C-alpha cells in the first residue's frame, strides 16, 4: 500500500476485494437498479456533499451493460483558469495503469513472446542472484519480494528526474528481497517497473508505443495514453492541500518517466468505460487468458486487479494515487455495472467514493459525507499512541509534539502531518481523508493502528 500524501501510484486497497471469489463469466443479473432520475439525483447530492466535506473535484461515470447512467464533472480541472471538470477531462491514473501493463503481458504471452512462468532473469541483464527464483507471475501478483521503490527514503528527490526503464530497475535491483518469492503478497510498484522493462525488451517497442498500438488504438481510446511532456487538451491540473493555509496548492512535481508502467497513464471516464466493455469480449485476449488475469493469487490480488466481493457481489477493481490525483475503477461483472471515479485533488479517497456510489446503484446503505468534528485529546492519551508502526513495507513514526500527534512515513520529513482527533482513538490525517484508528489490547496497551478508509489495513506497533 502507498499513501497519496507521501508516496505514489497505488493502492488496490482503495477499491474492494475483501473476499476471494471465483472469476466466472456470468451473464448480467436481473438485479434492479434505481431509476435513472433517482440515481442521478442521489449521486449528485452525494458528490456535492463530498466537494464540501472531502474536497472532491473530478469526474465520475456509472454504467450498466455499457449504457451510461451517470457521467458528470465536479469542481475545477484548473483553478487558475477557472476551467471546470467534465467527462472529457483527462486525469492521471496512478496505479490504475497496472491493469494495462498486465494486459500487455498477457497479449505478448498469447503471441508466444513470453510465459508468465518465465524467470525474470531471462529478460533482465546482470540479473542479481536473489532474483533467480522470481517469475513474471510473481511480478504480476506482487509476490516477488522486490522492495517497493516508491518507499525508498530519497524517492522524492529522484522522482523529479527523467529516468529510463533500465535506470529505474537499477534503483532496486541489488536491494535485499523483503521475502522469498511467492511466500506472500506485498504491494510493490517495483514489480510493475520490471514488467514494463520486459514488455519493451520482448516487443521491441517502447511501453507507450505498445499500449497505443495494441490497446488504445484498437479500442479507440483516443483520450488515453502515456503522460509525458506533451501538451494535452482538457488535462486536469493536480492539486494538494496546504493545512497551514487551509487552501489548495499545486501538487508536487514528478517526472512521469518515473512511475512508468506502474503509474504513468492518463485517461478519461469515457475511455475507461471503453476499456471496461472490452474486458467482456475477446477483442484483446482470449477468454482463457481473461479468466486467468482475474483469478486472485494471494491477498485477493490477480494480474493488475483486486478481486473480491462487495454488497454480496463479485467485484473487480483497482485504485490509484499519484501526486495531485486519485482514481478508481470498480467493476461488478455479474451485474455488468461499472463505477469510475477520477479526481485531481490529492488525498481524496476515490475508492471510498466509488464504493458509496456503488451502494447508491444497488440500493445499499451509504452516508452523505459531512465535515468531521475535530476534538481535543489530552496529551497523556496522545503519549500512549507514540511509537513506531510497521505498515507493510514502510514504517510510520507517531510522535507527540507539544500536544499535537504527528505522523511521519518512511522517515521522509516532507510526509509529516498532524493527526486530528475525531474521538479518543480515531484521527484524521491532516489534508487527507485517511482515518487512523489506534487499537488497544485487554491491558490497555496500544498494539496497532488500522486505516479503515484503506480497506482496514493494519500497522503493528513495533517500538
The level of helicity is 25-40%
Shape: globular
Which stretches of 5+ consecutive residues score pLDDT under 50? 1-8, 12-30
Average of pLDDT: 90
Strand order of the biggest β-sheet = 14-15-16-17-18-19-20-21
Count of helical segments?
A: 12
Q: Percent of residues in beta strands?
A: 15-25%
Distance between the termini: 21 Å
Instruction: Output the structural class.
Output: alpha+beta
Describe the model.
By secondary structure, this protein is α+β, with helices and mostly antiparallel strands. 25% of the residues lie in helices and 23% in strands. The strands form 5 sheets. Strands 14-15-16-17-18-19-20-21 form an 8-stranded antiparallel beta barrel. Strands 2-1-13-12-11-10 form a 6-stranded antiparallel sheet, with helices on both faces. A 3-stranded antiparallel sheet has the order 5-9-6. Helix 2 (97-110) runs parallel beside helix 6.
What would a concise description of this structure say?
This protein is an alpha+beta fold and 463 residues long.
Which features does this protein show?
alpha+beta, 463 residues, 21 strands, globular, disordered N terminus, six-stranded antiparallel beta sheet
SSE arrangement:
Elements: H1 36-54, E1 58-64, E2 67-74, E3 76-78, E4 83-84, E5 91-92, H2 97-110, H3 136-140, H4 155-158, H5 165-172, H6 189-203, H7 207-216, E6 225-226, E7 239-242, E8 247-250, H8 260-263, E9 265-267, H9 269-278, H10 287-293, E10 306-310, E11 313-322, E12 325-332, E13 337-343, H11 350-362, H12 379-385, E14 387-391, E15 394-400, E16 405-409, E17 417-421, E18 426-429, E19 435-440, E20 446-451, E21 457-461
Antiparallel strand pairs: 1-2, 1-13, 3-4, 5-9, 6-9, 7-8, 10-11, 11-12, 12-13, 14-15, 14-21, 15-16, 16-17, 17-18, 18-19, 19-20, 20-21
Amino acid at each position: 500500500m502507498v499513501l497519496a500524501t507521501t508516496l505514489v501510484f497505488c493502492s488496490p486497497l482503495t477499491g474492494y476485494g475483501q473476499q476471494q471469489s471465483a472469476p466466472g463469466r456470468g451473464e448480467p443479473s436481473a438485479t434492479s437498479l434505481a431509476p435513472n432520475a433517482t440515481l442521478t439525483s442521489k449521486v449528485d447530492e452525494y458528490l456535492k456533499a463530498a466537494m464540501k466535506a472531502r474536497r472532491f473535484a473530478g469526474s465520475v461515470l456509472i454504467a450498466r451493460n455499457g449504457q451510461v447512467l451517470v457521467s458528470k464533472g465536479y469542481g475545477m480541472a484548473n483553478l487558475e483558469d477557472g476551467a471546470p471538470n467534465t467527462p472529457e477531462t483527462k486525469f492521471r491514473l496512478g496505479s490504475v495503469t497496472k491493469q494495462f501493463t498486465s494486459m500487455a503481458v498477457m497479449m505478448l504471452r498469447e503471441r508466444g513472446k513470453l510465459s508468465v512462468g518465465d524467470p525474470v532473469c531471462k529478460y533482465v541483464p546482470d540479473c542479481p542472484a536473489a532474483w533467480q527464483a522470481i517469475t513474471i507471475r510473481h511480478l504480476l501478483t506482487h509476490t516477488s519480494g522486490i522492495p517497493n521503490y516508491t518507499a525508498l527514503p530519497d524517492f522524492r528527490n529522484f522522482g523529479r528526474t527523467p529516468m529510463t526503464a533500465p535506470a529505474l530497475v537499477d534503483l532496486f535491483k541489488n536491494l535485499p528481497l523483503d521475502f522469498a518469492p511467492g511466500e506472500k503478497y506485498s504491494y510493490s510498484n517495483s514489480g510493475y517497473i520490471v514488467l514494463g522493462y520486459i514488455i519493451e525488451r520482448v516487443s521491441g517497442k517502447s511501453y507507450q508505443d505498445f499500449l497505443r498500438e495494441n490497446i488504445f488504438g484498437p479500442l479507440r481510446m483516443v483520450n488515453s495514453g502515456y503522460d509525458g511532456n506533451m501538451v494535452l487538451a482538457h488535462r486536469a491540473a493536480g492539486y494538494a492541500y496546504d493545512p497551514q493555509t487551509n487552501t489548495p496548492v499545486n501538487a508536487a512535481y514528478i517526472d512521469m518517466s518515473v512511475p512508468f508502467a506502474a503509474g504513468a497513464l492518463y485517461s478519461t471516464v469515457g475511455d475507461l468505460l471503453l476499456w471496461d466493455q472490452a474486458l467482456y469480449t475477446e477483442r484483446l485476449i482470449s477468454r482463457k487468458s481473461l479468466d486467468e488475469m482475474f483469478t486472485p493469487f494471494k491477498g485477493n490480488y490477480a494480474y493488475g486487479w483486486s478481486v473480491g466481493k462487495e454488497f454480496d457481489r463479485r467485484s473487480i477493481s483497482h485504485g490509484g494515487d499519484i501526486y495531485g490525483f486519485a482514481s478508481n475503477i470498480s467493476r461488478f461483472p455479474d451485474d455488468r455495472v461499472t463505477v469510475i471515479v477520477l479526481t485531481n485533488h490529492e488525498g481524496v479517497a476515490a475508492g471510498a467514493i466509488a464504493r458509496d456510489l456503488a451502494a447508491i446503484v444497488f440500493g445499499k446503505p451509504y452516508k452523505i459525507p459531512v465535515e468531521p468534528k475535530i476534538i481535543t485529546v489530552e496529551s497523556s492519551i496522545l503519549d500512549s499512541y507514540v511509537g513506531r508502526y510497521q505498515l507493510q513495507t514502510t514504517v510510520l513514526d507517531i510522535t507527540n509534539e507539544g500536544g499535537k500527534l504527528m505522523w511521519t512515513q518512511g522517515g521522509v520529513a516532507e510526509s509529516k502531518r498532524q493527526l486530528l482527533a475525531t474521538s479518543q482513538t480515531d484521527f484524521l490525517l491532516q489534508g487527507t481523508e485517511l482515518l487512523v484508528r489506534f487499537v488497544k489490547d485487554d491491558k490497555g496497551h496500544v498494539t496497532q493502528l488500522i486505516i479503515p478508509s484503506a480497506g482496514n489495513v493494519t500497522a503493528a506497533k513495533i517500538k
